[in-house]
Amino acid sequence: MFAYIVRRVAYAIPILIGVNVLTFYLFFVVNSPDDMARLHLGMKHVTAEAIEKWKVDHGYDKPLLLNSAADGVSQLTDTIFFEKSVKLFAFDFGFSDDGRDISYDISQRMLPSLAIAIPALLVGLLANISFAMLMAFFRGTYVDVSGVILCVILMSISGMFYIIGGQFLLAKLFRLMPISGYAGGFDGIKFIILPVLIGVISGIGSGSRWYRTFFLEEAGKDFVRTARAKGLSESLVMFRHVLRNAMIPIVTGVVVVLPLLFMGSLLTESFFSIPGLGSYTIDAINKQDFAVVRVMVFLGSVLYIVGLILVDITYTIVDPRVRLS
User: Fold this and answer.
1) What residues contact 87, with CB distance under 8 A and at least 6 apart?
2) What are the Cα distances from residue 303, in Å, to 220, 250, 251, 268?
3) SS3 of 27, please?
4) In this predicted structure, which of 101-105, 143-147, 158-162, 307-311 has the lowest mean pLDDT?
5) What pLDDT digit, counting tens, does each position of 182-214 carry?
6) What is the pLDDT of residues 132-188, one digit of tens each?
7) How crowded is residue 19: how many other Cβ atoms within 10 Å of its Cβ?
8) Cα torsion angle, 213, 194, 307, 280, sign
């Protein structure tokens, strides 16, 4: 097991380097250091001296990927890419282009993101499994067919519709909860109810249909037919045998999502003015703050790789037949 984890971590290093290179390339294809300087200094009355000073102060005065004026290894190390990227692998995130400590910002914005993501995951998981079990229990009947049609309809609706419709209906029309904003402690509960509710409803279609597939696959296996032949009721068969064995792929799917909960939701946090990591990333993109963008992309890649490793480890726990070597 330990050797397997070490190998996976070693494999992750070139992946992270590739993601970092791609992020760097895509960002600077659209923007140049001069464009970034003009945006941060203000578009009016910006002198060439002011732009050059901003680039020097923020470390954007060197070549992007290759410094042809340097000698030897310095051609690669004396570049914006190397100096901005190498510290990421030591989790030294440095400062944003407007001078804020990125690590501090992440620590402050992490809790609002988790306050929405964790309840949405748990409530959504319970709702999806319950609805999928209902369709599987009444498989082949009007309940099952109607449920599948409803799932397809819910999957076909854009997430933006759920957010805007929920804000209009529950917040503006009926005034049941605030339309946006956030507060710490117990005062923040009223602000997260609507985002969590929208997150659950928007995910029921795809989640329930996915889990229904697992349940139907297990319901057709020999050990389930044997349980029915022994006289067990259908409800007991579904909960004791079908649900228990279908939880293997469900649990592993949830595990891979857990690290990504930390990153927050881009759309939800932006529309509800939640000061989480999702809105932090959107704000950085709008302000062309490359320092924050590269950190958030790198952190998301690390967390996703961690999630995949946890999935493999979880398989060995929930299914004893699987062994890692």
Assistant:
1) 93, 94
2) 36, 19, 17, 20
3) helix
4) 307-311
5) 987 888 899 999 999 999 999 999 999 999 999
6) 999 999 999 999 999 999 999 999 998 889 999 999 999 999 988 999 889 878 888
7) 18
8) positive
**Could you tell me if 162 and 202 are in contact, meaning their C-beta atoms sit under 8 angstroms apart?**
yes
Of the candidates 33, 31, 30, 78, the one whose C-alpha atom is nearest the C-alpha of residue 51 is 33
Length of the chain as a residue count = 325
Q: Is 303 exposed, middle or buried (0-12, 13-18, 19+ CB in 10 A)?
A: middle
Hey, what are 231's tokens?
Answer: 């006289």
Which letter does DSSP use for residue 141 in this model?
S
279: left (phi over 0), alpha (psi -120 to 50) or beta: alpha
Residue pair 311/323 in contact (Cβ under 8 Å)? The answer is: no
- For residue 54, with 0-12 CB atoms within 10 Å meaning exposed, 13-18 middle and 19 or more buried, which class applies? buried
**Cβ–Cβ < 8 Å for 125, 254:** yes
* Residue 101, phi then psi, degrees to nearest 5: -75, 115
Residue 37: both structure tokens together: 């300087």
Separation of alpha carbons 268 and 264, rounded Å: 9
Q: Are 288 and 39 in contact (CB under 8 A)?
A: yes
> Torsions phi, psi of 265, nearest 5?
-110, 125
State how far the alpha carbon of 143 is from the alpha carbons of 138, 139, 146, 149, in Å: 6, 8, 5, 10
- CA–CA distance from 53 to each of 33, 57, 168 (Å)? 12, 6, 47
The burial class, CB within 10 Å (0-12 / 13-18 / 19+), for 40 is middle
Q: Residue 130 corresponds to which amino acid?
A: S
Instruction: Supply the pTM of this predicted model.
Output: 0.85
Between the alpha carbon of residue 95 and those of residues 60, 104, 287, the distances in Å are: 13, 10, 15
Burial class (CB in 10 A: 0-12, 13-18, 19+), 289: buried
Give the Å distances, CA to CA, from 218 to 72, 113, 195, 224, 322.
61, 35, 34, 7, 18
